[in-house]
Each structure stands twice: as C-alpha cells, then as structure tokens.
C-alpha cells in the first residue's frame, strides 16, 4: 500500500483506460439486461461489437469534453457535470447513428434504444462512482494508514466556510489534520453532521472534546465572526493549550477557491479589541484621481502603505520622498513589480533641506501633500532632542510654508496620540508641529479667503507591525527564545493596523476643510503585558516555562497611558461614527512662527536643555516623565 501513499495524481492514460472499460462493460450490461441474460439473443445482436462501438463513441466524445483530465482525488461538482456532458453527447450521437443506420444502411439499429438508455445511465453512475471511490481511497490513506501522524482538530464554524475548509483539508495530503467535530454558535445546527462529523454548540463542549479525542488544533472558519467572539474562541483555545488557525477572508482565496495552504495561523492583528474600521468613501477617488500627490516618509511603514492605497485612486503622478535610501529602493522595486500602472517618481531627500524641498515642488508641482516623514522612536528622540526638533518641527514648517507658496490644495499632516499631554520630546515635537500647521491654516483663512492651502491633521495611536513598534520586537524576542521585555506591568496602548491608519489619513484628506485634527475612536486600550503573553501562546510556547516576561522599567519619556485628547480638548462628531474632530484652541500664527524660528538659533548653540526648555514654552502641557529633562519642569 505504500506506493499508493506516494502516488499523488493518477496519469491521464489510466483514467482514459478505466473510462473505456466502464463504457464497454456498461454497454454489455445493457445487452444482458435487455435480453434477460439470454446468450443466444445477445449473440444474435452482436453485443460485443455494439459495446465496442459504444466505447469508441464515448472516447471520441471525451476527446472533446476532456473529462479524463480531472484530478480524481479532487473530484467535485465540475467533474461530475463534465462526465454528464460526455454521456449525454454520446447518447445523442448514438440516437442519430441509430436513425441513420436503421433507415438508410440496415434495418437494425447499431444499439437497441433500450440498451443505449441502460448503457448511458449505468456508465454515468459508474464513471462518477469510481472517481468518488478513488477520492475516498486517498482520504483513507491519509486518515487511515497515516493516522499516527495526524493531529486531531476541530473546525469552529459549520457554515459554508467551514464546509469548504473541511473539503480543502481532505484534498491536501500534506495537511495532517483530522477533523473530529465541528463547533457552531447556531443552536439549529447542534446535533447535525457534516461529512460524518457531529456539530456541537458554541464552546461549551470544547474542553470535553479535547479530553475525549486529544484535540490539538482548532480552525476558525466563520466569515463574519466579531472580534469579541474571535477573542473568546482564541482565549479558550489558549487556556486549553490548543493551536489556533483561521480561514482568511473570501477575497484572499486563490481564484475564488480555498486551498488548505491558505489557512493561516492567527496573527496578533486578529486580536484587536474592537471591530476593524473600514472606510469606503467614493470621494477619495474623486479627490485624488488625476492629481500629482507627494508623500513624505514614503519608505516608512505608514508612508509606503499610504502610497499603495493612493495607487488605487489613479493619481497623475505619485512622488515618494524619503531620506532612507535602502528602504526607498526596496519600495521602488515593489512598486515597479506590483503597481506598474501607477506613475511614480522616487525622490531621495530630507524635508529639513529647504533647497531640496523647493526643487521637488518646482519640478513636479504637487497638488496634495501627505506628510508622514518624522522621527517617532520615543527613547531615541529623548537622547537626541535636536534631531526630533529639526525633523518633526522645523521639517514640518519648511514643508508647510513651501506648500503654501506652491498653492497646494491640501496638506495632510500625520501626527500621533503621543502629542496629547506629551511626556517626551518626540510627542512634544509633534504637538508643536500640530500647533504650527493649525495656526497657519487659521491665518490663511483670515487673510486669503479666496484661495489657500488647507491644512489637516490626523492623530492616531500605535500601529501594529510598523517599524520600531512593539510587535516586531516581541516576535524577534520569541524567535530567539526570549525573554520578552515589557517596560511596566500596567502599561497600555491604543492600537490600529497600518491599513486602518492610512485609511484615516486618506479619509481626513477628503473630509477636512482646513484646521481640523482628526482622531479615531480606537476602542479600549490594550495592556502590553497581555499582548506579550498572547503572542507567546500563539507561537506555541508557554509563558514563563518556555519564554519569560521580564519588566525593564519605563524608558525615558515613556508614560503608562496614552490619550487621544488632552484636558482642554473636546470632540465633534463626523459622518463616520469612528472618526471625531478634536476641538483644539488655536495658537496665534505670528507667535508660534516666531517661537519655531527661534529654534534655528538654539540649534546652533548646541544646548539640549535650552532646546527642550523652549519646546516646553511652546507646548506648556509638556511635562517630562522618567527623563533627565524633568529638572526643567522644576525650574519653570
């Protein structure tokens, strides 16, 4: 039997030969039934010749329908309909031949009509039956002979996705997954069977099934499962030490069909404590189509995803500007390979370089600017405050001022929740930049009412998987066997995915009329310790015994809780329930413009304390935490 386990696909000539034998013997069977097994009558009607003729006719039809080309162990409805077509065409062919032969060449039909009917029906049955038999044989070889290697598992979801997942698993001999039961939240399905496997309700019987069958795997196969319910299922699996996989959305299936290989492990992005925010505003297409668009920080995780999404809206030209040459090169290669339809221009440059920025605007005349370039690593910027101020504050001012002179339609500034009641230089520098673009917008509205650049700010939390974020760090630490370092057991953060963040930026660019700060309703903040523990468990490891979690203490400038609004800000609702506008008191443009210009002189003095002290003047709510700059707060 071992050779059968190695035999992946039956050769076509074997299938064609088997089909020929079946056609021949089904026709012979038709003669036997028609003439009550009386051999004399059968010989009189030359049954062997008639059966051979029926077989030859069927083979000729097969050459047209190609019914022998299907992979037998993957036999499905399409193969069955192909066989039905073959038999039907063969039946009609012999009806015509009988009519022609009986009326013009002889007084006898090639095959008696009753024999033709019996032969056609029996061959239809047998051709399909043997294929299904072979299909089940392969399943038996997988689940029977290799039973010791199979992992007993459960499929959560007894709907269409669950059934398709079960079929995909059965088809793929490499997937050593033996489905022993289904779980489903629909009480109407309880007690019924799919493919001989019983359906149980909800998660109530999961522990009993684990103990009874030794379950080690669970596949989530529900198309519209809420994040809350998904978390409940995953938490229960983690408690019972079961590995969890998930069936991807239908739009990610290959050619509209699910393959077992597409069933993937649960990713941390699946565990957001809220429903994923989906924006679909047709106005985005209207606003971006046919325009020249500049994205700064285009090689970063946010900037590059922003560019990918913009490509779908058919811009006239997309300018990708970044200072990181290696990352920019990688993005360029990706866009050449996957977004060839979108005209792009790669620009290696620094937003702090006024001469370079002017050259870009003069050469390409962008109409919309998405400003994502920034230094965002909190401890690093605490060590190098001059870099944070030059890039995040002065770089933004340079880009904003030149955008006004170039008569850009809209300028969308990407900010962060760390700008709210900042406790570090990075957050305070982003808040100062927010204040400048908002004050500039108000100044333009008062003094240039006919036309001016509209400045819009977007503010969101931590981005899952972005460069420098905690998720890639935890993954790397798990890969190396730990330990995972968490700064504090009570630290929490708001999280969103990279596509969500970029959707907000695009949506804000459309909704914004100038001067707004858009924030997301990001649900409840996530405890970083819980995140670390789940990531360890999802990797198949045990917390503490396999991988330890250690607390390193708050880093410079870090705070326990992030906020989306400060004590003086209120929110205004928009057309989308998940997007709000922060009502922030505007600053005087002339005042903040002069304050930011003063940074130029302070940078030349090379005094960190003077730079940070002046930043605290601009952003009075900036109170340092776990930082050497706390002394400046005591002096003020």
UniProtKB/TrEMBL annotation:
Keywords: Membrane, Transmembrane, Transmembrane helix. It holds the Pfam family Polysacc_synt_2. Residues 293-582 form the Polysaccharide biosynthesis protein CapD-like domain. CDD domains: UDP_invert_4-6DH_SDR_e. The chain crosses the membrane at residues 12-33, 45-62, 83-101, 113-133. The keyword Transmembrane helix applies. Gene3D superfamilies: NAD(P)-binding Rossmann-like Domain. InterPro entries: NAD(P)-bd_dom_sf, Polysac_CapD-like, Polysaccharide_Synthase-Rel. PANTHER family: POLYSACCHARIDE BIOSYNTHESIS PROTEIN EPSC-RELATED, UDP-N-ACETYLGLUCOSAMINE 4,6-DEHYDRATASE. Belongs to the polysaccharide synthase family. This is FlaA1/EpsC-like NDP-sugar epimerase.
């Amino acid at each position: 039997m071992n050779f059968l386990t190695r035999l992946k696909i039956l050769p076509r000539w074997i299938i064609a030969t088997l089909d020929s034998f079946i056609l021949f013997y089904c026709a012979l069977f038709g003669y036997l039934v028609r003439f009550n097994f009386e051999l004399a009558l059968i010989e009189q009607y030359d049954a062997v010749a008639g059966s051979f003729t029926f077989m030859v006719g069927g083979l000729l039809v097969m050459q047209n329908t190609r019914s022998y080309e299907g992979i037998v162990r993957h036999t499905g409805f399409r193969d069955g309909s192909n066989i039905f077509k073959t038999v039907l065409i063969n039946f009609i062919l012999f009806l015509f031949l009988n009519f022609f032969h009986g009326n013009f060449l002889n007084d006898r039909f090639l095959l008696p009509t009753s024999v033709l009917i019996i032969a056609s029906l029996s061959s239809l049955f047998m051709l399909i039956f043997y294929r299904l038999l072979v299909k089940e044989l392969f399943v038996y070889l997988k689940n029977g002979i290799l039973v010791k290697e199979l992992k007993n598992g459960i499929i959560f979801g007894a709907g269409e996705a669950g059934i398709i997942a079960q079929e995909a698993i059965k088809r793929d001999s490499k997937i050593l997954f033996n489905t022993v039961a289904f779980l489903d939240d629909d009480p109407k399905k309880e007690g019924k069977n799919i493919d001989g496997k019983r359906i149980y309700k909800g998660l109530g019987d999961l522990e009993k099934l684990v103990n009874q069958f030794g379950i080690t795997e669970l596949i989530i196969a529900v198309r519209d499962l809420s994040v809350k319910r998904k978390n409940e299922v995953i938490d229960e699996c983690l408690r019972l030490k079961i590995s969890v996989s998930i069936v991807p959305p239908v739009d990610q299936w290959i050619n509209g069909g699910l393959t077992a290989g597409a069933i993937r492990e649960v990713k941390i992005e699946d565990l957001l404590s809220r429903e994923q925010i989906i924006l679909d505003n047709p106005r985005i297409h209207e606003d971006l189509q046919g325009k020249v668009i500049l994205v700064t920080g285009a090689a970063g995780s946010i900037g590059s995803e922003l560019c990918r999404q913009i490509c779908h809206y058919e811009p006239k030209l997309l300018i990708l500007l970044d200072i990181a040459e290696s990352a920019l090169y990688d993005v360029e290669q990706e866009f050449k390979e996957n977004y060839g339809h979108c005209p792009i221009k790669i620009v290696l440059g620094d937003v702090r370089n006024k001469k370079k920025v002017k050259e870009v605007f003069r050469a390409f005349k962008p109409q919309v600017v998405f400003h994502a370039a920034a230094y965002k690593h909190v401890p690093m910027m605490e060590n190098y405050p001059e870099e944070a101020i030059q890039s995040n504050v002065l770089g933004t001012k340079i880009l904003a001022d030149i955008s006004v002179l170039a008569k850009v339609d809209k300028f969308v500034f990407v900010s962060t929740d760390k700008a709210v009641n900042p406790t570090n230089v990075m957050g305070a520098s982003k808040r100062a930049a927010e204040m400048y673009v908002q004050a500039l917008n108000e100044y333009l509205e008062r003094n240039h009412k006919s036309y001016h650049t509209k400045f819009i700010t977007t503010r969101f939390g931590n981005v899952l998987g972005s460069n420098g974020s905690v998720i890639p760090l935890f993954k790397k630490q798990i890969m190396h066997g730990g330990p995972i370092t968490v700064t504090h057991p009570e630290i929490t953060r708001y999280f969103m995915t990279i596509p969500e963040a970029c959707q907000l930026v695009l949506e804000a660019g459309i909704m914004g009329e100038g001067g707004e700060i858009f924030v997301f309703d990001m649900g409840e903040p996530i405890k970083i310790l819980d995140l670390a523990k789940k990531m360890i468990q999802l990797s198949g490891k045990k917390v503490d015994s396999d991988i330890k979690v250690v607390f390193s203490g708050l880093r410079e400038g870090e705070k326990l809780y992030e906020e989306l609004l400060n004590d003086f800000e209120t929110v205004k609702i928009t057309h989308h329930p998940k997007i709000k506008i922060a009502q922030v008191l505007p600053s005087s443009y002339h005042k903040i413009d002069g304050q930011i210009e003063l940074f130029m002189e302070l940078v030349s003095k090379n005094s960190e304390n003077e730079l940070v002290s002046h930043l605290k003047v601009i952003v009075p709510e900036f109170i340092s935490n776990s930082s050497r700059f706390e002394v400046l707060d005591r002096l003020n």
